[in-house]
Design goal:
By secondary structure, the chain is α+β, with helices and mostly antiparallel strands. The protein has ten helices and 32 strands. The protein folds into three domains: about 300 residues, TIM Barrel, CATH 3.20.20.80; about 80 residues, Galactose-binding domain-like (Jelly Rolls); about 130 residues, Jelly Rolls (Sandwich). This is Beta-galactosidase family protein.
Length: about 600
């Protein structure tokens, strides 16, 4: 059985060992893409694959655990071992990763006393229950048990959030209690305050740093921190950022291959170990994109997690692959290229209005005040409806504590769309004697980093209520929209009214399965579901204009694709592409 140790250097089977790793998130790739990605990783000169483990993927509903399909972390790790790779796992409750709520499941927010990333009874009891199931899967994969896992993470960039050592020690103890016996580590920013707040160096937990440039300076900071605590440990950059993520309504961020090569060479020349973040980024399928936060406003990330990484979102090599091979002095061999081709243009076969299929597509609930989204799944969309008595004159209407985007309809007419800075603005609306008020609210993605993880804004939907004139309006019905119920929709339903979001169905045949892109440049804003798989969000605002489709989501023969369009944009056909498309300029 192999042995891995952390001393003045890393030792593998009693021999000095440098970790040259690359990040691949199994949950952001279709399972058929795991093996070619890992083969490319090994071909590039790396010896280890690193991955986060998102809590919300593995326990999407409290007490219901999922380790199958894209969530089959065991199969992913065993595949890496089969290919001769080692593995680093990061199973901390919080992962960041530009992932919805930093990996926390939305159902945590149903508890009024929930304080994430803290040594509080409610939060720790939920982590304990999750870990009891998670480590049944992970423990046998450790190198001490014949598996390929070298190390596991206690917490991630905690020094950029808090300094509660009791919390860090409680997480560490839970890992030990559940059978973890490989070396543990923390990862933080490389400055002294972050390392001091986020590490467990005095508890002999390895300290690593995250950065993407100025390698010598950052390694010196890490060395200084270790020396001050009397530790002689190997230096490791746990996240060497080779690219970056992207947000809606902003330009695409890319990193030059030459810059990447220069800074990585400096890291290697210093004798440090590293993990490239990312080796292949993948896709934020479904409603799992995270959100950045600036002051009081959240800025959601796009569906594509291409990251300008070594391999692109669809597996095609970036120019950085050749630079990586040059730095590591391995043959400049290109991996097998994945097949990415366009399918023929397809015209719509049916269309219904959301308002006409609400009972089929949504779980309905009546309440005195509007219910937040967490009373349902916590993700996606929720439609609120009520009846308002008017005085045959315009009235002021105001949404109080709403997140994140709201379309307001009065008597079947769109009167306002509010998003970010305009949320909660007072709207003057015409009110007859009897009025129907409908509000479609979208959760565009919870923040994944920083102190706003604790903000009440991470509860989505209408949190307080709706004010008309000067009073809160009571008496609501709401539908928690669930796209897994699409099979219940009657596509022959005749539209009773011509307004609001639409669901448009397309049927097309595939004689062969391969990766492709759906061109969304002629759409407005919404999501696409293909054969039951939520491909993620699109938005004409840019910067991305396509959704990646892995071959796993397609069927030989008949396929069903549904576009949920929330604007008045007419959806009549879908086009495919063999490459991603970017917007000419970002819209507001």
């Amino acid at each position: 059985m192999e042995k891995f140790e952390v001393k003045s250097q890393f030792y593998l089977n009693n021999q000095p060992f440098k970790i040259y790793a690359g990040a691949v998130h199994y949950f952001r790739l279709a399972p058929s893409e795991w093996e070619p990605t890992l083969r490319a990783l090994k071909l590039s000169g790396l010896n280890t694959v690193e991955t986060y483990i998102p809590w919300n993927v593995h326990e999407p509903v409290e007490g219901q655990f999922n380790f199958t399909g894209q969530a089959d972390v065991r199969e992913f790790v065993l595949l890496a071992q089969k290919l001769g790779l080692y593995v680093i796992l990061r199973p901390s409750p919080y992962i960041c990763a530009e992932w919805e709520f930093g990996g926390f499941p939305a159902w945590l927010l149903r508890y009024s006393d929930m304080l994430v990333r803290s040594n509080t009874p409610r939060f720790m009891s939920k982590v304990k229950a999750y870990y009891a199931e998670l480590f049944k899967v992970l423990v046998p994969l450790q190198i001490t048990h014949g598996g390929p896992v070298l190390m596991m993470q206690v917490e991630n960039e905690y020094g950029s959030f808090g300094n509660d050592k009791a919390y860090l020690r409680a997480i560490k103890q839970l890992m030990l209690d559940n059978g973890v016996d490989v070396p543990l580590f923390t990862a933080d920013g490389s400055w002294q305050q972050a390392l001091a707040a986020g590490s467990l160096i005095d508890d002999d937990v390895l300290v690593t740093a995250n950065f993407g440039s100025h390698s010598a300076e950052n390694l010196a900071e890490l060395q200084q921190f270790m020396t001050a605590h009397g530790k002689q440990w190997p230096l490791m950059c746990m996240e060497f950022w080779d690219g970056w993520f992207n947000r809606w309504q902003e330009e695409i961020i890319k990193r030059a291959a030459s810059s990447f090569k220069t800074d990585l060479q400096e890291l290697v020349d210093a004798g440090a170990s590293f993990n490239l973040y990312m080796f292949r980024g993948g896709t934020n399928f479904g409603f799992y994109n995270g959100s950045s936060s600036r002051q009081a406003i959240d800025y959601p990330q796009v569906t594509s997690y291409d990251y300008d990484a070594i391999l692109h979102e669809d597996g095609q090599p970036n120019a950085k692959l050749a630079e990586l091979q040059a730095v590591l002095k391995v043959p400049a061999v290109m991996p097998d290229m994945p097949v990415v081709k366009a399918y023929p243009t397809t015209t719509a076969t049916a269309q219904v209005r959301l308002i006409d299929v609400l009972d089929e597509l949504g779980q309905v609930a009546d309440s005195v005040t509007p219910l937040p989204m967490e009373q349902g799944s916590g993700y996606g969309y929720q439609l609120y409806q009520t009846t308002v008595v008017g005085q045959e004159q315009p009235e002021k209407l105001k949404l109080v504590d709403v997140a994140d985007r709201a379309d307001i309809y009065v008597n079947q007419k769109l009167v306002a769309m509010q998003y970010q800075a305009s949320l909660g603005d007072e709207v003057e609306v015409p009110l007859a004697a009897q009025n129907q008020l409908q509000i479609l609210v979208e959760n565009t993605g919870r923040v994944n980093y920083g102190q706003r993880l604790l903000s009440p804004t991470q509860s989505k939907g209408i949190r307080t209520g709706v004010v008309i004139d000067r009073h809160l309006h009571f008496g609501w019905r709401q539908w928690f929209i669930d796209f897994s119920r699409l099979s219940q929709v009657d596509w022959q339903t005749s539209a009773t009214v011509q307004y609001g979001p639409t669901l448009t169905k397309f049927n097309f045949d595939c004689s062969e399965r391969h990766g492709t892109y759906l061109d969304c440049s002629q759409f407005g804003k919404g999501v696409v579901i293909l054969n039951g798989h939520n491909l993620g969000r699109y938005w004409r605002a840019g910067p991305t204009q396509t959704l990646y489709i892995p071959k796993d989501f397609l069927k030989l023969g008949q396929n069903e694709l549904v576009v949920f369009e929330t604007t008045e944009k007419a959806i009549t056909q879908v086009q495919f592409s063999d490459q991603p498309k970017e917007a000419d300029g970002c819209e507001n």
